[in-house]
Amino acid sequence: MTNTRIYTFDDMRLKVGDKINLELPAQMSKERIFVKVVGFIKETSLMVTIPNKIRLLEGDQVIMRYFCGRIAFGFSCTIERIIRATNLAHRLHYEYLHLSIPKRIEGVEVRKVRRAKTRIIVSVNDDKQGAEKKVSALISDISPKGVSLGANQALGKKGDILNLVFRVPFQNTETYMSLQGAIRAVNTDKVADVPESSKFHHGIEFQDVQPNDGVALQNITYQQMIENPNKLE
């Protein structure tokens, strides 16, 4: 990580139920998945759920990434025990991993709003024209403050308000977003990794974001930061 600091386990403020990004051993897959914290024994073991349909072995090394406040943490652990137990009397089945407590935890503070590159289809209409004038566009990057939109036509002029409706994947589910944004810039310069069909590029600043939507936007952006640290601007 760039501009990293060393943190303690307590600095992460982990709680039961928190989701942590788990990076599988390199020989298995480059896929990263989310697991939930089941509990921890200080200075001994961190317990998390077992990923579905993933075959892990005791002794495997995994990389964990977690975001708390404005700090993105990263650390490595060893899978020390894999627990699979059934309580027949109560018809309960338990599956979780015992991970070693990390010896070194690195973290980087997010000091400014970052934009995460993405490719999300969005339905757009001008606030003055009504819902019947919907068109499709492509979100090429996203942050808690706004998005960049690519479209095959100009969606309005600077200052116009747009209604944006889209779904984004977040922690194995989809989050539905319905937001308003003001056009802050429109240009026709070619943008890397954006299809030729998106001839017009719009800088959009979100307006009057509700608290729940604001949290969702932060979480979505931070998830992209953790999963794809090289796809940031």
Walkthrough of the structure:
The strands form two sheets. The chain has a six-stranded antiparallel barrel with strand order 2-3-4-7-6-5. It has one helix and 14 strands. The protein is elongated and about 60 Å long. It is mostly beta strands and 233 residues long. It has two domains: 5-109, Electron Transport, Fmn-binding Protein, Chain A (Pnp Oxidase, Chain A), CATH 2.30.110.10; 116-227, predicted glycosyltransferase like domains (Thrombin, subunit H).
Could you describe the largest sheet, including whether it forms a barrel? 6 strands, antiparallel, barrel
What's the tally of helices? Answer: 1
* CATH architecture annotation of the largest domain: Beta Barrel
Could you list the spans in which at least 5 consecutive residues all have pLDDT below 50? none
Q: Widest sheet: strand order?
A: 2-3-4-7-6-5
Q: What is the approximate shape?
A: elongated
**Structural category:** mainly beta
Mean pLDDT: 81
Proportion of residues in β-strands:
over 45%
Compact description:
The chain has 233 residues and is mainly β. 7% of the residues lie in helices and 52% in strands.
